[in-house]
């Protein structure tokens, strides 16, 4: 029987070839975007929301919300504090808030002041800020949590110029032994973003680190986001997230434990940690001694969790070459943190060989940049 001749319209590609070409284009786009520099700014009080065009990246962290967009040669990010403060309503107070262009909304005889303005009021009244999130997800203790986040998002970005524009946001991995712990958080954020006219897609925060930092390593390595509420971990192989999980302790845990141990307010501990702490040198007082102790505890537990998770899974591909670990987030930024992590890693046996431990190029913006890269690859 004669073999039937295959016919093909001029210019038409086989389906697999077309798919392969699309994948290649997405990879090229991701590599190009990952090599761009980030230009960051804090959102000035009183400034209106931006009208964005094109894909958007979004880091919704326990401490801050950061919006990222591709603009020419750079990636631009805008940061707002993820916090609020309440005051009783009143006509005169409302007039002052409007006059000073302070962002707020009203509910049940209360003004909900949001963002950096909330910090100013908390400092004035010498009380702690309230946060809509705890340990990386919506706080079960704050009934207004999602509404506060929606208000902050609307103060940062307007509805898209083109309805259905892709917006990618970071989500935490489930804590070890708590499957499904982030499902509610992710679903609520998706609903909020969708209601603004965007097409929401989610991305694991550790994977966002990989996309942002590991293009020269074929997107193969371990990305660790050490934020305020939790540490997120992702082992990626050729851009495929093989393992994702989190541990529910990070910068906020360190601050709280130091406060409990030495009696200094967590806000003061946080300031010392972010401005003066040097983990490469010996501690100089009670606060820095406690900070060293709890940094040691955090890194040790993080590494032991990594050892346990990787050793107990059968998903690990055979990786021929050693792979890097990238640390990101504010908790990883004190001088000496990367070196301490590397030294403690030497005492832990992992099933994969590590080539180096590196700090992300821009630790505070890495997650936002990674989510933007994903949004860009999903567009078009």
Care to describe what's here?
The protein is α/β, with parallel strands linked by helices and 380 residues long. The chain has one domain (33-82, 131-377): Nucleotidyltransferase, domain 5. Helices cover 37% and strands 24% of the residues. It is built from 11 helices and 16 strands. The protein has helices spanning 15-34, 91-99, 116-125, 145-156, 183-195, 205-213, 251-262, 266-275, 286-311, 337-345, 366-377, and strands spanning 37-42, 56-60, 64-71, 74-81, 84-88, 104-107, 110-114, 133-134, 137-138, 166-171, 199-204, 221-226, 231-237, 240-247, 323-328, 354-359. A 6-stranded mixed beta sheet has the order 1-4-3-2-10-11. β12 (221-226) and β13 (231-237) form a beta hairpin. α7 packs across α8. The longest helix is centred in the C-terminal third of the chain and has 26 residues, at 286-311. The protein is globular and about 70 Å long. The two termini are 44 Å apart. Residues 1-15 have low confidence and may be disordered.
């Amino acid at each position: 029987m004669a073999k039937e001749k295959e016919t093909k319209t001029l210019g038409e590609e086989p389906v697999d070839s077309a798919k392969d070409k699309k994948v290649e284009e997405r990879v090229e786009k991701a590599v190009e975007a990952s090599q761009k520099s980030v230009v960051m700014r804090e959102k000035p009080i009183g400034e209106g929301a931006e009208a964005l065009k094109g894909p958007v990246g979004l880091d919704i962290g326990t401490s801050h919300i950061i919006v990222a967009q591709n603009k020419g040669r750079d990636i631009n990010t805008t940061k707002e504090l993820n916090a609020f403060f309440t005051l009783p309503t009143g006509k005169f107070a409302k007039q002052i808030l409007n006059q000073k262009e302070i962002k707020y909304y009203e509910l049940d005889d209360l003004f909900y002041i949001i963002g950096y303005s909330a910090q100013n009021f908390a400092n004035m009244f010498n009380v702690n800020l309230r946060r809509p999130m705890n340990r990386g997800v919506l706080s079960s203790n704050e009934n207004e949590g999602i509404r506060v986040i929606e208000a902050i998002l609307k103060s940062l970005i307007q509805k898209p110029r083109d309805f259905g524009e892709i917006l990618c946001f970071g989500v935490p991995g489930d804590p070890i032994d708590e499957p499904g712990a982030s499902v509610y958080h992710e679903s609520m954020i998706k609903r909020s973003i969708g209601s603004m006219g965007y097409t929401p897609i989610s991305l694991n925060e550790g994977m966002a680190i990989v996309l942002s930092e590991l293009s020269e390593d074929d997107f193969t390595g371990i990305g660790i986001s050490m934020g305020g509420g939790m540490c997120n971990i992702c082992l990626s192989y050729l851009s495929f997230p093989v393992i994702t999980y989190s541990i529910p302790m990070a910068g906020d845990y360190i601050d709280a434990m130091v406060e409990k141990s030495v009696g200094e307010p967590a806000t003061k501990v946080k300031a010392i940690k972010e401005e003066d702490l040097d983990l490469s040198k010996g501690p100089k007082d009670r606060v820095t001694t406690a900070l060293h102790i709890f940094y040691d505890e955090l890194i040790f537990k993080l590494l032991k969790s990594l050892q346990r998770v990787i050793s107990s899974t059968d998903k690990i591909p055979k990786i021929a070459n050693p792979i890097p670990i990238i640390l990101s987030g504010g908790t990883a930024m004190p001088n000496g943190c990367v070196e301490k992590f590397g030294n403690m890693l030497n005492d832990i046996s992992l099933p994969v060989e590590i080539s180096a431990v590196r700090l992300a190029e821009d630790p505070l913006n890495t997650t936002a940049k990674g989510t933007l890269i994903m949004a860009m690859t999903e567009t078009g």
